[in-house]
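Appendix B. One record, verbatim.
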Amino acid sequence: MMKFVVASILLVSAPVLAAPQGEATRLVQAPQLDGLVAGDAAWAVVTAMTGFTQVQPQEGAPASQRTEVFMGFTDDTLYLGFICHDDEPDQIIVSNSQRDSGLEDEDSVRFVIDSFRSEQSGFVFGTNPAGLEFDGQIVNTGANNFRNKGINSNWDTTWEVATQVGDFGWSAEFAIPFKSLRYAGEDVQTWNANFERTIRRNNETVYWAPIPMQYGLNRLTLAGSVQGIEAPAQRNLKITPYGLGKSSRGGSLAGSEDGGDVGFDIKYSVTPSLTLDLTYNTDFAQVEVDDQQVNLDRFSLFFREKRPFFLENAGIFEVGVPRELSLFFSRRIGIGPGGRQVPINAGVRLSGKVAGVNNLGFLYMQTGEVGGVAPRTDFTVARVSRELHNRSSIGALVVNRDDDLTDNQTYAVDGQWGVGENTTYTAFFSQTETEGVDEDDHAFHLSGAYNGEIWSYNVSYSQVGVGFNPEVGFLARRDYRRVSTRIGKRIRYGKDSSILQLRPHASYNSYWNFDGSHESSRLHLDQVIEWKNGAMLSMAVDFFHEGVLQAFEIIDGVVVPQDEFDHEEFRVFASTDQSAVLGFGLEARAGGFFGGNRLSAKPSVTYRIGEAFNANLSVDHNDVDLPGGDFKVNLTQLKLSYFFTPKISLQGFVQHNDRHELLSTNLRFSWLRSANSGLYVVYNETDDNFNFPGRPRREFMIKYSHIFDIM
């Protein structure tokens, strides 16, 4: 580890171009929000920010098409205008109208605002030529927050956008109320910002403030600055009540359940940078159901959080290793065994910044009693971190779970140290307190990573004691020491090649128990080819060791015995241009598996008609031959969506799992007003022929919510 630290400190990063500067202008009159920027007298007083630079396909080259960005403001609203000139406007690609979709596979613009100039957190907004609304949050990118690789698109606020497509290309106008943002208290402010445009037919991404290819819009240390912003002092109060009607039949019910419910959320700005959220009788019936997964191992599966209340500012509370060890995992609140919903009586969250550099998070939730499933339970989470120079930070976390029978606590300290622009070290130490457990109740993690334009590598060490028990967290496994290493290279091609880059890489992960048993390891050798049209091919060989310390039933009637297994597996992943009308993907594996063999294939097909209709079909097929028995498992998923407008849509999600003889259907109609409030009509049907043959569970729900902007 010490050699790695010294070597990475001595590495010299490639020079970075000076960050550009722009200026926001007070508008004499507000723009007419129709998407037309050119010719609108309101924008005539504003100087355009331009001079965009490619990050791909030709890093450092000028953008192939001119982009102009205008920023202005009135007493209560921040306005941005984009003119995306295009020599071939008939070649503009629009593939999605779903709110908060990624925008990578279509023509689009996005921008980030770092209003505190912290270089670690910010607000992101974007759109495409169809007027899609994208907003997101970058939270604490300098802390031990493993989601900072991207943008949390589950953050939603109130704003508007309008677009126009014409012979010049396309343009967009954004109107963002100042009360929808958070910022410091000065009368005249300078904010850090960066602007991104995607020209999809060229697989081209350009930025106002140039950044290296290995980074994205969330690399706030390389953002430019915009001065002259006169942001008003604010006190923001929003109340969002909802009404719900629901009818359920079948499944475990002997008859039927019909009823209604009401609840509300309150959002109040304690200071311009610190927000208080209150929720009462919270219900998430409108949220899409979980994606089912095929588990052919003895460790826990990870299901991501989808509920909006827990996703907002989620990065503030995160400490851990993604999908392996999370010290706070919000799905432990309000979701019982088997995914059963547990009622949330009330909750409060205080989150944001104090003194510009201190991130504060406090969460309290109370869930109701469900007979035979869960007692009434109180959950408390407290988090504080201090941002330091150059993506560095230090913080602490406390998590408490308490019911009438038991209680559990998790304590942690964590930090991150940024060296130069490309090297980062992270660490955390944690301990839990559980009644009856007095030893080996600790966990810690150390890692270092270098991410350069050509080479990238990292190394980490984790340790989790047998008594470590974060009951409001997630552990894929217990009682282990883990070593992980990875090295990769980027090989880029010139403008005349159809290949964008090659990414050969190798990684090694290994787990040992504290008694010295080698539980598992994986050596992964991979070659990834990326084409300029967005297609990709990955060809990998994996070498596995599995030390099964206790026999387990991998599927009904098939047992994997206690033993040690060594095997190899060949894996292929391929996908075509995902911006095309018809796209294909394939993930296939073939090789040894717990003393036998496994052949798996997961083909997928995507079809779209403009920005209105999208369909995706995938089949996960596994054919397994083991000494203890042979079996096949198939999981089929079909997703359909039709957008009448960017705010009115009909979506369907059908899943069939033949392992559990389960067929589930989720249909959702939504008519949104702002920030995901509005009307939802949802129908769920689950045919569980294994547990309830001939008794499909059917549920119909109507939910309406409205945001009242009090001040």
